[in-house]
Amino acid sequence: MKKAILFILLPTLLFAQDFAKHVNPFIGTGGHGHTFPGATVPYGMVQLSPDTRIDGSWDGCSGYHYDDSTIYGFSHTHLNGTGVSDYGDIMLMPTMSEPSFDNKVYASAFSHANEKASAGFYAVKLDKHNIDVRLTTSTRVGFHEYTFNKAGQANIILDLNHRDKLLEGRIRVIDEKTIEVLRRSEAWARDQYVYARIEFNVPLKVNLVKEENKENTKLEGIFKGTELALSFSKQVKKGEKILVKVSLSPTSYEGAKLNSSEIKHWDFDKVKKEAETLWNKELSKIEVTSNDKDKLAIFYTALYHTMMQPNIAQDLDGKYRGRDNQIHTAEGFDYYTVFSLWDTFRAAHPLYTLIDKKRTADYINTFIKQYEQGGRLPVWELASNETDCMIGYHSVSVIADAMAKSITGFDYEKAFEASKASAMRDVLGLDAYKKNGFISMDDEHESVSKTLEYAYDDWCIAQMAQLLNKQEDYHYFMNRSQNWKNIFDWETGFMRPKKNGGWDKPFDPREVNNNFTEGNSWQYSFFVPQDIEGMIQAYGGPEKFEAKLDALFNAESKTTGREQVDVTGLIGQYAHGNEPSHHMAYLYNYVGKPEKTKEKVHYILNEFYKNTPDGLIGNEDCGQMSAWYVLSSMGIYAVTPGKPEWSSVEPYFDKIKINLEFDSPSREITKSSSLKKLMLFEMSNEYHEEMGAVEAIDIDYINAKKIIPVPVIQAESKAFKDKLKIELKSQNSKDYIYFIINDKDDHLAKKMFVKFTKPFEILQTSTIEAYVKTNEGQSNTIFATFFKKPNNYSINIKSKYNPQYHAGGPEGLLDGILGTENWRKGDWQGYQSQDFEAVVDLQEAKDITEISARFLQDQRSWIVMPTKVEYFISDDNVNFTYFGSVNNTLDPKIEENIILNFIANETKSKKARYVKVIAKNFGKLPEWHQGFGGDAFIFVDEILIK
Predict the structure, then answer these.
(1) Does pLDDT of 13 surpass 70?
(2) Taking CA atoms, which of 328, 524, 754, 813 is between 20 and 30 Å from 602?
(3) Taking the model in full, what pTM does it have?
(4) Residue 438: CB partners within 8 Å, gap ≥ 6?
């Protein structure tokens, strides 16, 4: 039975304690944490931080890595712990002597011995010119203090080409103390606007300009182009300071000017103190006590990391840039950006429902506006751009969780409309998911993960429908929420990918491949948070489910398949460094083994979070990694966001006090616990009172109609030469399976489904349709098409394909099934670090007029066209003569996925039995590529011979 943590109501007594002193911004800046140490305030627009990595590399996503010893400059926007690089806007760098726009020249060495960081503050000495830098911020303004410890010419470099691609740059010098800037750039966010107003406390003169002005217009004081940098200078005395304020706006120069009013003076220490006050106000929402300074540092830094985003994205007057790229005004709410929802729906957003109900409502109002202005809810929104990174439509989890917990301040009906619209689209496998009840490899890559996460999101929408008394929608989405059953293999006890109606083979639950999102079957086979009881029964009951969890944690800590940098922090196959595993330790609570939950959770708290730069076991992921720590150390976790309850574990601290908002009493968590389910949220909302929502949520799957899982269509392969044996299976041996065969010879016959009794054979290309029928109902009808090969050729591949990309084995290159641009669906063979070479045996000598082979390019995934494809023919498979060759003409920099057919033909046929194909690998990836120095792949699908 689940345990629910006991909360004792206390009077609200907030003490002016210094919680910010415990924050160590360097935690996560080393290893793979991807955090940054610079100055920011809670949920602020500005993140003013040093940039030590500007190459777009994975461990440089935040712009800073603790292993580095060079600073290129100080920019005003940074991402906290992401796995993709962006931001780094409006970069300033102080130098001395002659200015240069070569970043290797204006960069400076630094030492960690001369570096300091605290909540809202950063300082460092730039060794090259002995310049001391101090940084602090308000919500929308970055404040710099540069102390020049030598006399001479001081420069401040403004380089708009810093880090990502500059689409449009404009700099207007208003006077010797004031500059206006537009930086429009492309990286992860494809079209990002940042306006800035830069103010100096002393007059500075422009002493160097880099400008590529394609319009070739010259206006005094105005500089523009896609290559743009300016240097501002003055003569300084030893010890002289120059102060700089930089205000940002996503909307306009006027917005940046308005936002600059946040700091109307030049008192650096006053701004620093105000930033610390803001942090103490937010950090005081959770008070923990401990004599262990490291534990306090880890806890309050974790809480700090959860509050670094989402980021306010509106000007002081409420103006913001919408998803339609138009300027709107937020009325009655604040507009935010940076929603890493695949990560943060799990723990960060449930934490916000506890300590920040007002912002939770603001986030949802932001979602609704993005739906209205962009046509759908955000998936991974960044700077008013939808990146479409990661999977699911997890905005609905945030919305359902807020509604279940009676959080008000947003339109429930509109939120439901937006949620339903996102779930009813026909993209990213949703069309197949709606039709068949699952996604197969044939439909979409990452099919297992998408099926599972869509099913959970559908349950969330069902909860909203229940609250709003939309019974038809409730039952429809409850039905969809059970689709996980269609990819659960009852024989192996794993969630498995399906291909052409059956289980994909071979299957290794440890294998990281394109059927899963940043993980493997072990790491996804426990993701049914909406129906934990149903999942336990699918595994065979509590004892077998407990044994399966034990097997997860006790397995060898090694994955197979693709190297996935995100899969870190392994305990067996549990991977704490990535989000899909985060709820798993708490599942022991659901089979009455809370002691095992405590053992695992406390081990993770102790071993995977440290007060050191490499103190995070994986990417911070916009506060999710830290939110897990905050909640778990408090003794609570939201296994199922959308249910107003917490799973529990013994708290990590002796005393935890939660200071809630407004007039709510504070609550103290003790190590005492109760088996009685105790809600943390008062059910005062009218919807809950009228609909009895909590009770309805608890008995969801008792009242909901159970789906009948689809059958499995099993065969040796998708293509065959002579005949193919077909077998149909259902997870219950007593189920009846009905099927029909469609082939080209009987398309006019009257079709009827017949009961399956034994395996059968097909002799030609055929489509099988099948469904399961029981006393309770009928499953969806599934389809599988099997192709009779157009020839009897065989192939001998001399190269060795990557086992991840086998396309069904060697015969996959001759089966007549052509792969699409989406290579992740498994129809292409991949070869890395080598040429591709194969010999096709036609079985007899034939006249040949044309030979071709299809290749694919997706350079972002290191897949590049071969430089050249050569064809040879032979009678004896020993002595080959030249037939023809084709040189590649496709630019390797093109980002779209493209298929090319390399065709060589002869006007006069040549007779031969054997055909050799050699495709020359691109080799090492060049300097312009993000994977510079890595080995390119060749992807080949079909060899055609006429």
Answers:
(1) no
(2) 524
(3) 0.92
(4) 432, 447, 451, 483, 486, 487, 498, 710
